[in-house]
Amino acid sequence: MAQRFVHFAAPCQCRTANEKQEHAMGFGELGAKGIEGGRALAASLDRRVFDDVAWTRSEQERLKQAVKYLSVKKGAAAALQAHHITADPAALTQWLSPDHAPSLDVQQGVQHAFRDLRRRNIAPWLTRYLNAGRGTRIEIQPVDQEHVEARHRRPLRVREKNIYRWDPIVQAWASQDSLEMEHLWEWAISALGSDYHSYLYVERIGIFG
């Protein structure tokens, strides 16, 4: 079957009275808890790449994995310099010795550099994987309304949506372009019609497959 691509319509501009009030006051003023959809989608991609069993380790083990990755991958020096670390990537392995362990700030910088570089390196494969077949479905968990007064609560439910073309999403995620992620999220949910504004903020997004 031919590959299908999602066509994004212009976002619906209709709002309920509750949505208008919460929009005017700022998200969360009525007690709802959640984050921007683009940020939630980026977090779900991070979980897919970094939080599986193979990458869940103790702090020392995580440092060891980051150092090993940065010591052999092209572009590691630039990734480290972006976090103010000028050490030669090939010399990072000395930091695995307790006698040469860097400061906590430097360790955090190494972790950030590792994640930056891995995002960029894995982006082509991740795009192909998510695009395969007819795309990949996501599960959208709506905002938590436990602390919202009953009269202000919205009838929200878990939604599922298939995204057929992940290229721009993965590209924005890999470059950590939060503004572009928000723009792409608005495109992705524009097909929800009158529910559009109810999912600008979400509790969590899961990725199937």
List the helices and strands and how they pair.
Layout: H1 17-25, E1 35-36, H2 37-50, H3 59-72, H4 76-81, H5 104-131, E2 136-142, E3 159-163, H6 167-174, H7 178-189, E4 201-207
Antiparallel strand pairs: 1-4, 2-3, 2-4
> Number of DSSP strands?
4
Based on secondary structure, the structural category is alpha+beta
Poorly predicted runs = 1-25
Strand content: 5-15%
Backbone shape: elongated
The gyration radius over C-alpha positions equals 20 Å
Average pLDDT confidence is 80
N-end to C-end Cα span = 19 Å
- Give the spatial strand order of the biggest sheet: 1-4-2-3
Number of distinct helices: 7
Biggest sheet, open or closed, and with what strands and sense? 4 strands, antiparallel
Helix content: 40-55%
Order of helices and strands: HEHHHHEEHHE
List keywords for this structure.
about 210 residues; alpha+beta; 4-stranded antiparallel sheet; elongated; disordered N terminus
Describe the protein.
The protein is of the alpha+beta class and 209 residues long. Helices cover 44% and strands 10% of the residues. It has 7 helices and 4 strands. The protein has a 4-stranded antiparallel β-sheet. Helix 5 packs antiparallel against helix 6.
How would you briefly describe this protein structure?
The chain has about 210 residues and is an alpha+beta fold.
